[in-house]
Design a protein that fits this description.
With 256 residues, the chain is α/β, with parallel strands linked by helices. It has nine helices and nine strands. Strands 3-2-1-4-5-6-9 form a seven-stranded parallel sheet, sandwiched between helices. Strands 7-8 form a two-stranded parallel sheet. It starts with a strand and ends with a helix.
Length: 256
Amino acid sequence: MGYVLITGASEGIGKAIARRAAKDGRDLILSARSEDKLEALAAELRSSGRTVHVIVADLNTSDGAAQLWAEAVQIGQIDVLVNNAGLGINGPFVKTDTTREDTSVQVNIVALTQLMKSAAQHMHANGAGKILNVASTAAFMPGPHMAVYHASKSYVLSLSEAVAQELAGGDFTVTALCPGATKTEFFKDADMHDVRLLKLGLMMSAEDVADAGWSGMMRGKRVVVPGLANKVFAVLPRFVPRGLLTWVVAQFYVRS
């Protein structure tokens, strides 16, 4: 059995997936920018008898994904890739920081695609494998005040479903995990501490999201939306006029 490679593994959903994978007896390669956090998690998981490697990588560089993959396959065969690294920024498109949005596109789209391509080729050659791409319920609708983030997650969902269909019928699966608001550092990093969405009290724990994503991936599901409220949010856009939908979403992201 090969390794589980997880990006954005230092905190939040990535960290929770690492713990879930270790609980299932899997050996891991953990990657993120924070070496201290990665090493602390690695030490915790090694204490349970797992083999854990740490690769510090910055996916916001043109060769970050390629370097990460090259280092990972030097360690061993990759059976599972968890594309979890991602970020966003809250605010009107005409005012938000361009550098932050460029970083979002690089990490959420470009690096994810590069890693997914490398993993797909690697796993196809080995005859089997699983890819879990962390998208969001944001993927199902436009997001005023989070426009680039929503668009990037729509890309992740579309790419995941398309490649899953291309590879249907074999032992290689692609799963898109689409959580809603989750108790992580994402909202702080995205400058969302006072948006209305956070006052609804609907946030799931990272552990519950990770459990749903991991188990869904292991069953070969193409799309996993954890939680009843999130399932409703994912389905509603099919029935609501687009103009009304974008107005409603905007209200969630307005500061109050």
